[in-house]
Amino acid sequence: xxxxxxxxxxxxxxxxxxxxxxxxxxxxxxxxxxxxxxxxxxxxxxxxxxxxxxxxxxxxxxxxxxxxxxxxxxxxxxxxxxxxxxxxxxxxxxxxxxxxxxxxxxxxxxxxxxxxxxxxxxxxxxxxxxxxxxxxxxxxxxxxxxxx
Length: 148
Hints:
6-stranded mixed sheet; 4-stranded antiparallel sheet; CATH 2.40.240; 2 domains; mainly beta
């Protein structure tokens, strides 16, 4: 396998999320610790497979244009989302919100709706993270390499 380096993590960073992965693909990762004087050997290779893209009927995918106009406020990295657009009045518990990276959603959104309240034209959604794939480190720098 020919790996390529995909990231250098500072010792203050404890997670890494690999974005822009293809559906139905296999990825291989290895990592090593380093400091100002030396580097460790690379770890054993970790294998990860992405799943095919399957969009459930309860998934609401927002494009950038809709998102910028629709969301009036995002709190707690998407835990509470306030909409001013009546198109989102029919959101319900269990729906999945998917949104791209924008100024209002700097990490994008992949959230499960837990509750919806309406106050006039304001729609407030409380949501939880659906998840992301992360690697954890403990107080060391990490170099990530990827083979696909």
